[in-house]
Design brief:
The chain has one domain. The protein is built from no helices and 7 strands. A 4-stranded antiparallel β-sheet has the order 1-2-3-4, with no helix packed on it. The protein is flat, with a radius of gyration of 15 Å.
Length: about 120
């Protein structure tokens, strides 16, 4: 995978793009792993080569930010692209996080997350 040139990093800075997946002609999902220049958590970016940013490059936006010390992996969508499944691996591995703890347990667990739009529209539009 080619790294994103500095002149195309729009609205976010990042290092170590490790996964990418195209789900439609207008949606390219990029997973970022590793130590980020600004100290932020790993994240997932949405790139749309059909839209241009203010500098004439493809629009790249932050889609989500993972919890502390997790890796965002395994994105896949349903055939109608109205549901997206992705994984958050080893959250809080370096401490500072016990996600998900909605069940009262404090043990960190990798998880699969399902993303849907409130209005049921295609993810990433």
């Amino acid at each position: 995978m080619q790294s994103v040139p500095a002149d195309m990093t729009v609205k976010v800075t990042c290092s170590a793009p490790v996964h990418r997946r195209r789900t439609s002609p207008m949606s390219i999902w990029i997973h970022i792993d590793g130590t980020q220049p600004s100290g932020e958590n790993d994240r997932m970016l949405a790139a749309d080569p059909t839209r241009l940013d203010g500098r004439g490059g493809p629009e790249v936006r932050r889609f989500l930010t993972g919890v502390v010390s997790c890796e965002v992996t395994g994105v896949i969508t349903t055939s109608d692209q109205r549901r997206m499944f992705l994984n958050l691996q080893h959250p809080g591995e370096s401490g500072g996080c016990t996600w998900p703890r909605m069940d009262g347990l404090t043990v960190r667990r990798s998880s699969t997350v399902v993303v849907v739009n409130d209005d049921g529209s295609v993810i990433g539009t």
